[in-house]
Amino acid sequence: MRAFTFAAPASVEAAVGGDGQTAFLAGGTTLVDLMKLEVLTPSRVLDINALPLRGIEAGRDGLRLGALERMSDIAADRAVAERYPVIAEALLLSASQQIRNMASIGGNLLQRTRCGYFRDVTSPCNRREPGSGCPAVDGANRMHAILGTSDSCVATHASDVAVALVALDAAVRLRDATGTRTVRLADFYRQPGATPQVENVLRPGELVTDVLVPALPWARRSAYLKIRDRQSYEFALCSAAVALDVRGGRIADARVAVGGVGTVPWRLPAVEAALRGRPPRRQTFETAADQAVRGARPLPHNAFKTVLLKRTLVRALLRLEAGT
């Protein structure tokens, strides 16, 4: 780990407005690991845990989560579990209990990829060193993405709860020295294209202060399914966040997003459209799931994800419809 200066600002105003060499420390479950590996080498670290960025508020207008709220506290919140079960389930399927006790919701949304080449400073990586190459394209790529990839990067986005939040059309509130702005989470993340080192729309010194989930009464009928190599403490091979509004034996509306297969949390509007107006049964789900792999670019070691993605969606929808 390289030397850095450390401070604990007493206000949001004092925290924001730094340069690209400043890192914010909340739970530290990603930042500290990457600093130890010297993947990240900030010259300045700001401990923001004393800032007033907490609160879990579920009301008529939706849900507000303070960026410093711990993942375990959000998952245990009764209003979240009852009104937005997909969020609670995604959080409970993330990491271990110990890490969930430490990790903040804001930090989770900003966590970096688990691509082994990104974390190995002896390997080239366009995210870490632009222009150096992406060895995953022709190398070990079983865990990598099939959606939203480019010739420059095929790394998968790691967050579970980000998938649930994208499905629910959530937004993040951001603060810098010039003021506050709100960005839809689906627009917050950037696909790699030719600039994979730019992972989101955060400006230097800008801070995530809140996560905002709009009111969606039928989000009570939602679920998160995660497929992984082992039952606990493992990143997704594929995951699905689904919510259905069923009226009169037909699907009036649907929200679907997937993880473990995309370079960003991947919303599937074509699947949602294929579900609307149809009866909630296996044939409907299988037909809709065929739309999920449009534009997929499988690699030699992860081509199985095209099949796994469709099966994961069908299983999630069947489980939701069965109420289990």
From TrEMBL:
FAD-binding PCMH-type domain sequence ranges: 1-218
Flavoprotein found in the keyword field: no
Keywords: Oxidoreductase
KW Oxidoreductase (keyword) present: yes
InterPro entries: CO_DH_flav_C, CO_DH_flav_C_dom_sf, Diverse_Substr_Oxidored, FAD-bd_PCMH, FAD-bd_PCMH-like_sf, FAD-bd_PCMH_sub1, FAD-bd_PCMH_sub2, Mopterin_DH_FAD-bd
Pfam families: CO_deh_flav_C, FAD_binding_5
SMART domains attached to this UniProt entry: CO_deh_flav_C (SM01092)
Name of the protein this chain belongs to: FAD binding domain-containing protein
